[in-house]
Fold this protein.
Amino acid sequence: MVPERSADGMSRYLLNKFLYTVDRDPELVERYRHEPRELVAWWEAERANAVLNCHTGESTTWLRFDDVEREALATHDHVKLFELGAHPFLTLTLFIALFERDNTEPLEYQKSYGLRLAHFALPYPDIAT
Amino acid sequence: MATVVAVIASTHHPFYYRASTATGEDRPPFADEWTSKILAFRETLTRARPDVLVMVGSDHFHQLWLDNMPQFLVGKAPSYDANWYNEEREFGLPRMLLKGQEDLSGHILRAGLDAGFDLAFSNELRIDHSITCPIITLRPEADLPIVPIYTNIFAPPLPQPKRFVQLGEAIREIVESWPSHLRVAVIGTGHLSLELGGPRQFGPHGPDPEFDQRAVEWIANGDLDGCLREVTLDSLHAPGNATHGFMDFMLMMGVAGAGAKADHVDTLDLFHTMEAYFTWYPNGAPTA
């Protein structure tokens, strides 16, 4: 599987930072489920450059998504996120939080999530950051 | 000096708590067999009458994050809160509070650093299901003080498999050089073949039953040479994209010692991943 673009480690880092910081905040999980595009825009403007545990006067100055990444997040496109090398554990954990509640039988979402990735063969996209 | 009374290696399946406590229609068909195997496994720790538990696991991007990622970290605190919001949400895990054994933490850090392992440390560590799952399965009273040790099996670049084995060997020596009369069990959890967030996840079995079979044989026989010959950071991608967690089993093989055959070996073929349970008694099986 050849990615359409070559995400570098730093780009993957910011995708992971989004998944990580949203997943651990129940309010953001709900906002991301219901208004993904708005949440992604807000997060990139307000949170992407926050050094975790540091006050805002010491924020990073250079982190931003590119258009492909921003669109993948805004459309809940976990297949694209996998292709871009977002950490699969982070993506899976957050997306289970978003969509497992709609299951009509146990593991329905988890299984369909895997099926949507069926076209990927080894080696999977690099996840190193 | 302290005595290592048991070495235990296990998978850490976050679904066990919910499966084993579910009743009626919510109870999955495999729950009774699973619980029965866990009770037998638990008895192997109980019989060893430990005073202290050294707990090896891996933080799942809870407290340890990519802006500041240690490879090996030892907790040194009087208490450890445990389990995280997303583990309550997804697995129904309960909040827990475990006591720490700070003196042993300090000893492991000092002796580990002096032995060439540049161990990171944490004085305020909230631990996750890699350590609470074996507490739930093996010591649900959660009454013994612990020393948590985290390894990075998750965020590349990772240490080499051999380094996990070496750290395990060092932990064994270091615990046995702790000036204490206490009885220590070293418990570590990892994975056999496992896929998370990829196309092979949540299948009817683990993603690579053949790997699982070989892995169980390596562990049960203490076959470190065979294991190290075949397992590399690259090779672990093939059985499943989260299989690097197997390196924590390799660490525990190091604790048990090369060639040490496990005194208790059990497995359970579940959907998604195979469960595996191993206990070694370095000083012979305890008598009742």
Observations:
- Chain A has one domain: 9-115.
